[in-house]
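Re: beginner question about structure tokens

> Can someone show what the tokenized structure looks like for a real chain? I only ever see the sequence side.

Sure, here's an example I had lying around. Input first:
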Amino acid sequence: MRAPFGARLAAAVAERGPLCAGIDPHPSLLEQWGLPCDAIGLERFAMTCVEAFAGEVAIVKPQSAFFEAHGSAGVAVLEKLIAAFRGSGTLVLADVKRGDIGSTMAAYAQAYLGEGSPLAADAVTVSPYLGFGSLEPALDLAERTGRGLFVLALTSNKEGPQVQRARSADGVPVAQTMVDEAAARNEGTDPLGSVGLVIGATVGRTELDLSRLNGPILAPGFGAQGAGAADLAKVFGDHRRHVLPASSRDILRHGPGATALRDAALRVRDALAVHAR
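And the corresponding structure tokens:
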């Protein structure tokens, strides 16, 4: 049995800092790296990222859509990427944003959280907007296998507020309900719960009460999308010690050399460490 994801993440961040390095093989990046936009180019991109990031950052976040776009050959590359990071000390958060009900959600959970699945990562992103309770199959399986979930709460896309900032009949924002549900799952867990949230680094002041969360927060939007280290204090306040700022393009644009990628990631990592002190 592996240790719970929250404990493994806390140890990784203590050793390597909070940076979450995105692995987003967008067609424009493949072209920029001089790679063909096919499964061969995808694999070269992915394995260069493994060489650059394994053992250097706490966690990486491959965006599954860019692999799935290449069909079964692309999914095979994602499987190879996940396997390559195992044992490196760098955790893998598969950005899949799955969310469904009943047996379908259970099947998604088995694919990305189940023992023996070639796609099983250390954690995945999930969408609770069919109701937080719809995530129960993934929550239960993650708990049994020592893996984690990052639940979409308050995202930075312009369409998000229509749902996420809406208020219930008793005046509670929908996003706060997601925070409270995650907090209930993490209650009493030490040093950190395994149910995290996704809150965009560019959303500004959230008015969310994060005091009971006791879990990690993934903060996309750091770097090329406009958020800097100062924004982390504005958005997350005292809770930024549990925040994983996610940076993709700001690092990946330094490819195709693995050394240049590693150096770029370490610069971001070290800058975050300085700001946190």
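Each token stands for a local structural state, so reading them left to right follows the chain. The mean pLDDT is 93.
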